[in-house]
Amino acid sequence: MIDIRKFDSLGHANHGWLDARHHFSFASYHDPKRMGWGALRVWNDDAIAAQAGFPPHPHRDMEIITYVRTGAITHRDSMGNSGRTAAGDVQVMSAGTGVTHSEFNLEDEETTLFQIWIMPDRDGGNPGWGARQFPQADRSGQFVTLASGIEGDDALPIRADARVAAATVNAGEKVAYDLGAGRHVYLVAAKGRIRVNGEDADPRDGIAIRDVGTIEVEAVDDAELVLVDSL
Q1: Cβ atoms of residues 208 and 139 within 8 Å
Q2: Hey, is 221 helix, strand or coil?
Q3: Is the pLDDT confidence value at 162 over 90?
Q4: What is the pLDDT of residue 123?
Q5: Chain centroid offset of residue 184 CA
Q6: Which one of 35, 104, 119, 143 has the fewest CB atoms closer than 10 angstroms to its CB?
Q7: In this predicted structure, what is the pLDDT of residue 135?
Q8: Under 8 Å CB-to-CB from 106, ≥6 apart: which residues?
C-alpha cells in the first residue's frame, strides 16, 4: 500500500509568525482518517519567522524529533539544556515524565523544519534532550539513520521501536529502503519531485507506506528525503 497525501490536502494554520502544515490531526486540525501512522503521531511542516518562536510549554510521554530544513532553531528547556540546531541537523527531546521547553528562530531569516512526534514504547522515564550534526554528504545516495530506538543504529536515541532516516538523491538516481513485516513508513521529500515504486509525488507530499517489501525512490529532481519507520 502506498497512499500519497498531497501537500495541499494537509491541515493548515497560519499564525503570522508560524505557517504550519499538519500531516496528521493536530491542534485545531482534526481528520479521523489522519490520526497517525504506526507509532508516528505528528508530522508538522513549519515555517517560523525570523526572531519568533514557541514560548515555554510542557510535554510528556512523547519522542519529539526536529529536522531543520533551512535556517536554525534554538532550544532551551527546564533540564538546563540549550542549543542551536542548523539546517540539515537534528535534535531529539524525550519528554518522559514531563519537561518544559521553548524553540525560537533567533536568526535574521525564516527557518523551516519538520517536527515529528513518535509515541514511546512505554510512558515515564526521565526526560532528555540531544542534538547532532549529520553532514549531507554522508547521506548522498543512501539513507542515514538520524534518530532511532532500534538496537544497533548509530543515531540520536529515542524510546520507541522506530527510526528516522534521511537521504539526498541526485536527479535520475535511485535509493532503496527495506521495510520489515508489519512496519509502517511515512516518507516526505523536503525538496524535489520523486517517484516511489513507480508513483509520482511532489515536494512535501506525505507518502504513507505499508505491506511493501522494498521501497524504491527515484529522484525526478535533486531530492532530499526524510522518513519515519515504525510499528
Answers
A1: no
A2: coil
A3: yes
A4: 97
A5: 14
A6: 35
A7: 85
A8: 51, 53, 72, 74, 84
